[in-house]
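We include the pair:
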Amino acid sequence: MFGEHPSLPVVLINILGLAGILIWHLQGRRRPTARLIVQILFFGGMSLVLWVAGISPSHVDAELQGTGFLLARSARVLWWLHLAWTMIGFVQIYITLNRRPHEAHLLQDLIVGVVYLGVALSVIGFVFGAPVGPLITTSGVVVVIIGLALQNTLADVFSGIALALGRAYEIGDWIQLADGTEGRVAETNWRSTNLLTSDHNVVVLPNSVLAKQGVTNRSRPDESHQIALTMRIAANHKPRLVEETMLSVLQGCERILGDPPPAVALKSIDAIAIEVQLLFRVASAPSRIAAQNEIIDLVYEHCKANGLALAMPAQSVACAPPTAANERGSSSSRSHLAR
């Protein structure tokens, strides 16, 4: 087909490659599907021309000279570049279809880096005929030196990759660490994870710290949170009355969830107090404070309406006032000492 014009295939490949680059940039980043279709079409057209002309993309004919040699090299470089873009496009479409574009960007960047590195080595070795082995050896020594100098940074990078693969949390999840730090995941990158706390502060946590600590994801299986609020009621009331009063408190609260239904647990009783625990769930972590405030206000109102009295804290010590008998005894002692 191209026997009469041996240079026509490489010229056609160069035209297709440059046109593909131009249209690829005109598509923009907001249209990944359209960009992938363009990449596949142009890469398929370039591969078809190579196949029909019997040209191998892995080496350049040594007998070519001058402009033909340059065109052959540029055609093969463009073919390898479009191959890289097509592979990266498939990766991006896969991540988009899984609806995890933000959480998986660390893994996506890693795959993109591996693809570009492989294509660069292929171009250097196949197209330009340079020895790749010594280059890889030299690069390995440089990587070791850089790795020793950046141990902490590399620890954060690989911890971030491990957390992304394990999917312990996603963007928007509310998490809590073993040291008590909690907040909503606002951003994840190669080095750190940013949490937006309930105080509206951003806490930057290195990924290596997150990987070492225990992480509690409070957004799974849903956003609801359970709260256990402990009350102490004076022991001169019937436990059944205390339970019914606290249950009416929970049923009258508008900021807690009705499913699952709240519960009242009588924990203990002694000579001073009945310890009761109110168990209820709220829709999300930020609504905990408002729900607790409403519960406490309702406890006060219901206790006052039902004649219930709150007991002293368990750690407090109350000093009883002196009785009349004690006062007479003290007066007699003072009189005896005076005589």
Q: What stands out?
A: Confidence is low (pLDDT under 50) at residues 335-339.
